[in-house]
């Protein structure tokens, strides 16, 4: 299901009883965060703060803050449904033979939905055009006491590669410096940073447009770990089964979602000195350290007449961003299995906050297979940041943390089964001695074979005989235990 815009999604949340409207006046300085954090920890509803001190715009937060709402935001019953769609789509056996080709036509027709439509007219996001922009009119949050200032936390930062002309959309926090400038938190390893470096080689000003408040499928797509050749708006079209409508920004050539609530337009002067940005209370549960980043100069703000400001708060899990990470886990599993068919399932535990832990189950076929998977995963895109990879056998579900812990605690010999690997780490990692670089750990918790140097017989798991299990199941009511 495609939502027309963010307000359409809000309407559906309201109808399903998943939204709480807060009419009491609240402050965007810390108070909204404290309320949201308490609600998040109780797996509570989406929140719409309708009376924010000093601003005429309501704030929507925690909109995707449960598995149910995250699935709903992407138009599915459960997140695995999207992964299953992708798996069917890339399975070439579905297209072989005349009857299969005919049956696959609806699947192929869906491809038409991925291509964005560029509208020749202005969009709803441009109902109001402010050429004298003032960021202080927006209810931008200061989330935590130690933050360096107020931060825009749910921005779709849109740039254009000067060499290929391909647009990129990423989600990079923006610290507000004054009424018309912010920091631009482009990490060393991010696509936005790479495009910035290309502009830096050319000199001059780099155009940037920032969309706030879109159909949640569009917002999620900005966070998805896509290959550079795939436009995030194309991926959003695939998710929502309807093309994303785009309009040209007022002051630059970047195309933005036509139904966004706000669009902030401007530029980054690549010849300008970097400016201190941060600290920022981050999803690790700690403050990420202040560092120097480019400055985004705002030249124009456009918005709907009755716009809603979207925000999120990050911190100790569970928080809303955790569920966006789980969406990525389930959506991209089929693509990972296509590259590595031995993988059965994987899990990014919420406590690992995206990059810090991955549990993967495999169908083990040869000695050292678990170590091969560890090194393969460390070589894939953003998984290079993963600080711990745990590998278990195919009969262990990575989602069953208790059983995984049991296998790790009982199945490993530390010298043989623990791998320490040096490599890149996330810019937010505070534990490594050096920024962006450090050590990662792999744990092979699979059953060991003689060919892996295990000289003793590996014991069998304790299992009750099937006939007794069947007998007890049939007679369970007689025991009157429950």
UniProtKB/TrEMBL annotation:
* Enzymatic reactions: 4-hydroxybenzoate + H(+) = phenol + CO2
What does the entry give for GO biological process?
A: response to toxic substance; ubiquinone biosynthetic process
- Keyword DNA-binding listed? The answer is no
Give the EC number(s) under which this enzyme is classified: 4.1.1.61
Q: Name one GO cellular component term.
A: cytosol
Describe the location of the 3-octaprenyl-4-hydroxybenzoate carboxy-lyase-like C-terminal domain by residue ranges.
322-445
Keywords, in A-Z order? Aromatic hydrocarbons catabolism, Detoxification, Lyase
Instruction: Identify the residues that the record assigns to the 3-octaprenyl-4-hydroxybenzoate carboxy-lyase-like Rift-related domain, covering every copy.
Output: 122-317
Q: Which InterPro entries match?
A: HBDC (IPR022390), UbiD (IPR002830), UbiD-like_C (IPR049381), UbiD-like_N (IPR049383), UbiD_Rift_dom (IPR048304)
Question: Which family is annotated?
Answer: Belongs to the UbiD family.
Please identify the protein, giving its name as recorded: Phenolic acid decarboxylase
């Amino acid at each position: 299901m495609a939502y027309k815009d963010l307000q359409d999604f809000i309407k559906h949340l309201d109808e399903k009883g998943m939204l709480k409207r807060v009419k009491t006046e609240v402050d965007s300085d810390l108070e909204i965060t404290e309320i949201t954090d308490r609600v998040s920890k109780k797996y509570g509803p989406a929140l719409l703060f309708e009376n924010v001190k000093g601003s005429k715009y309501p704030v929507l937060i925690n909109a995707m803050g449960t598995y149910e709402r995250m699935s709903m935001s992407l138009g599915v019953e459960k997140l695995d449904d999207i992964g299953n769609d992708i798996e069917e789509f890339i399975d070439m056996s579905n297209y072989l033979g005349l009857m299969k080709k005919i049956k696959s036509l609806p699947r192929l027709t869906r491809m038409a939905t991925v291509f964005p439509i560029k509208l020749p007219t202005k969009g709803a996001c441009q109902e109001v055009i402010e050429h004298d922009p003032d960021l202080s009119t927006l209810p931008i949050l200061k989330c935590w006491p130690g933050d360096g200032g107020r931060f825009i936390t749910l921005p779709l930062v849109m740039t254009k590669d000067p060499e290929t002309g391909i647009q990129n959309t990423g989600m990079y926090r923006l610290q507000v410096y004054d009424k018309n400038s912010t920091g631009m938190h482009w990490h060393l390893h991010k696509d936005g940073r790479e495009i910035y470096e290309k502009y830096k080689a050319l000199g001059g000003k780099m155009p940037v447009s920032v969309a706030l408040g879109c159909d949640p499928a569009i917002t999620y797509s900005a966070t998805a770990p896509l290959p550079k050749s795939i436009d995030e708006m194309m991926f959003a079209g695939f998710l929502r089964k309807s093309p994303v409508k785009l309009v040209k920004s007022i002051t630059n050539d970047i195309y933005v979602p036509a139904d966004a609530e706000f669009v902030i337009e401007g530029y980054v002067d690549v010849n300008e000195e970097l400016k201190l940005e941060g600290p920022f209370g981050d999803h690790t549960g700690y403050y990420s350290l202040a560092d120097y980043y480019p400055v985004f100069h705002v030249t124009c703000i456009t918005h709907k007449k009755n716009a809603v400001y979207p925000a999120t708060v990050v911190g100790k899990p569970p928080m809303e961003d955790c569920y966006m990470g789980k969406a990525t886990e389930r959506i991209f599993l089929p693509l990972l299995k296509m590259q590595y068919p031995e993988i059965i399932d994987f899990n990014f535990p919420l406590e690992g906050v995206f990059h810090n832990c991955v549990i993967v189950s495999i169908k083990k076929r040869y000695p050292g297979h678990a170590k091969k998977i560890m090194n393969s995963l460390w070589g894939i895109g953003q998984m290079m940041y993963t600080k711990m990879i745990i590998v278990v056998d195919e009969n262990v579900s990575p989602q069953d943390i208790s059983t995984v812990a049991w296998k790790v605690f009982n199945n490993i010999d530390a010298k043989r089964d623990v791998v320490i690997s040096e490599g890149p780490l996330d810019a937010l990692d505070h534990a490594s001695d050096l920024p962006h670089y450090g050590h990662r750990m792999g744990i092979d918790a699979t059953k060991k074979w003689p060919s892996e140097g295990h000289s003793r017989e590996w014991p069998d798991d304790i299992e009750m005989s099937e006939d007794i299990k069947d007998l007890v199941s049939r007679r369970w009511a007689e025991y009157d235990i429950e």
